[in-house]
Amino acid sequence: MLPNSGSTHRVSDAIARRIKKQISDGRLTAGHKLPAERDMARQFKTSRVSVREAYRSLEELGLLRIRRGAEGGAFIAKFDHEPVRRSLSLVLGLGRTSHEEITEARVLLEPSIARLAALRARPEDVVTLEQVLIQEEEEVRRPAADSSTTAGQFHRAVANCARNMPLVVLMNALADLTAESVSTLDVRIRSRHRRKNCEYHRQIFEAIRAHDSEAAYTLMLAHVGDIQDRVGRTMKQAARTGFCGPSAAPKRAAPRAAANGRRR
Q1: How confident is the model over 36-85, as pLDDT tens digits?
Q2: How far is Cα 231 from Cα 101, in angstroms, rounded to an integer?
Q3: Rounded to whole angstroms, how far apart are CA atoms 163 and 124?
Q4: Distance of alpha carbon 14 from alpha carbon 8, whole angstroms
Q5: Where do the domains of the chain lie, and which CATH numbers do they carry?
Q6: DSSP run (H or E) holding 73
């Protein structure tokens, strides 16, 4: 039974817990539409306000998607990295972390992801990864094209090859934040090093296709270390020349990726 209390928060928390339990039990799956607030309130013998609060709290956790309009309602969300990205973006916006620390996290995380990808990639994963790489290479050959989006897709595809959900979620959240910071830079700055990135991606792909985990680790370590150095220098320069806001500049010198190269 729901708590017999005048506290809207206690009642809404109880409703939210029941919905989360049904999700974890598999009774509610992605795309399932929950009853309207009025019907849910009648079902739980409570007010619409309590139901609305429960739905909002679940939406903030990324478990529900609230749609407006005639075809709207509360729907069980597909599990993704969005709640993690939102949390990190908020921390970044409040100045509690920096773009430098985000890049540092990628230096520590991505080489191990690449190693797992080389060990676990299935034939269909390799096909998908190659398709992303070919698209990026085609864009690099077109001077006017901006390949930053496909460059990020390559890193996401590598994470998918690792077949580890927590790593996929973290990688996607960090990649989104990196894309946000890079988007503040002038297109000319973003385009300078894309060919080098693409060359690294080709080598990493070949290592994953060959299931050479150590080569994949070493190449990804070199790649993200190179990005760490270049992004730091570029954002400092961009802040001075006005291509991006001063807040994008790193706060302190990040440790070089080579220092993290020892296996643990």
Answers
A1: 999 999 999 999 999 999 999 998 888 888 988 888 899 998 776 677 77
A2: 12
A3: 13
A4: 10
A5: 8-76 (1.10.10.10), 82-260 (1.20.120.530)
A6: strand 73-76
